[in-house]
Amino acid sequence: MLPIKKALLCCVLLALFAPNTAAWPQEDLPAIVKRISPAVVVVETRKGGRRGLGSGFFINSQGHIVTNYHVVFGADQATVKTYDGKRYLVKKVLTEDKKADLVLLAIDIPPHTVSYLEVTGKLPEVGEKVYAIGHPMGLEKTVSEGIVSAIRKMPRLGEIIQITAPISQGSSGGPVFNASGRVIGVARATYRTGQNLNFAVPGEKVLRLRSGGGQTFGEFSQEMPGTALEQFQRGRLLHTQKKYHKAVQAFQEAISVKPDFAEAYYGVGMSYGAMGRHQLAIDNFRQAVRLQPNNPVFHFHLGVAYHVSGDTQQAMEEYRTLSRLNPNLARKLKGIMER
Predict the structure, then answer these.
(1) Taking the model in full, what pTM does it have?
(2) Which N-terminal stretch is annotated as signal sequence (predicted)?
(3) For residues 144 and 192, is the Cβ–Cβ distance under 8 A?
(4) Of 3, 40, 78, 215, which is least surrounded by CB within 10 A?
(5) Fold of the domain spanning 129-203
(6) What's the Cα-to-Cα distance from 247 to each of 47, 107, 244, 267, 332, rounded to whole Å?
(7) What are the pLDDT digits (tens) for 185-232?
(8) Which of 223, 161, 167 has its CA nearest to residue 190?
């Protein structure tokens, strides 16, 4: 064969068999999701009459589950709902990493029924396409797509992956995976002054979790919540002392440890309201309401903030909601609006 013909043949063969990396993730994503989904679980929590929701995933054949620490933080009981709809009580907390916001849970599940995910400790590239799967607002097995927008170092959390894939309440603790289906991080949503910033705790921190003897979930739930509660109480004290700027900082510290801490968002709203920063107060009251939609006190103060800011229409919406939740507070709000 002539040299030119050989060269042409080589080029054709390379073109035929070279992987199409640009198209592959989109073409194979349904297959990856189908493979990953059985390993993703719903984490349901209960504290008194309040219920919480998060995501998690199996990381080994023993049925050990990774989720965010804040998902089970402060709960009296936690239940895992698997892909087939079965529910299992969380028996043990094997290990925890509060700084990384990670926890390793154990349930009694037959090993042959467990599908688990591979975690990589290698950080993704900025601009790399990633996917998240979880249960935002209770909508199970929701897949979202985005890119890695930055690798950052943040106070308390350390190194963390910032992503554009949406992460909402209920998705925290779910896997964030790359185009090959390997888990590169654990979803963690953070809310700050009107915008959602989406993060993933790097896979390397998941791989560091070591399952020891651990403790029963009952023992875990009896632990006095640490930094979040301490900062929340500090914020309340600073607010009563009219040190509103410092109160906001303390409440936000509590939120950085426990992102679904509704009362802390409420505290931020109260302090901003006292400073006359009504839009920031509204942003935080709305977040508190999103986390606890049936809390009449949150709706009342959100209604007052709307009224003070001149948004009569939204204030009336809160009045109507309060009429259903707490008629006494509804009448109080109406009295303020009619002044």
Answers:
(1) 0.64
(2) 1-22
(3) no
(4) 3
(5) Thrombin, subunit H (2.40.10)
(6) 26, 40, 5, 8, 27
(7) 999 866 554 455 789 999 999 999 987 778 999 888 776 455 777 788
(8) 167
Look-up of token digits 């991080």: 185
Residues across the chain: 339
**Three-state DSSP class for residue 186:** strand
Give the C-alpha separation, 183 to 312, whole Å: 47
The contacts of residue 259 (CB under 8 Å, 6+ apart) are: 70, 172, 188, 189, 190, 191
Catalytic residues: 70, 101, 172
Say what percent of the chain tops pLDDT 90. Answer: 62
- Determine the straight-line distance between the first and last CA of the chain, rounded to whole angstroms: 96
Confidence (pLDDT) at 170: 80
Provide the token pair at 193: 């002054």
Residues 6 or more apart in contact with residue 257 via CB below 8 angstroms: 70, 98, 101, 156, 226, 227, 228, 231
Tell how strand 77-81 and strand 64-68 pair up: unpaired
CATH code of the domain occupying 224-337: 1.25.40.10
Helix (H) or strand (E) holding 107: strand 102-107
The CATH class given to the 35-116+211-220 domain equals mainly beta
The two three-digit tokens of residue 200, written as one number: 């993933």
User: In this structure, what DSSP letter does residue 165 have?
Assistant: S
Parse the chain into domains and list their residue ranges: 35-116+211-220, 129-203, 224-337
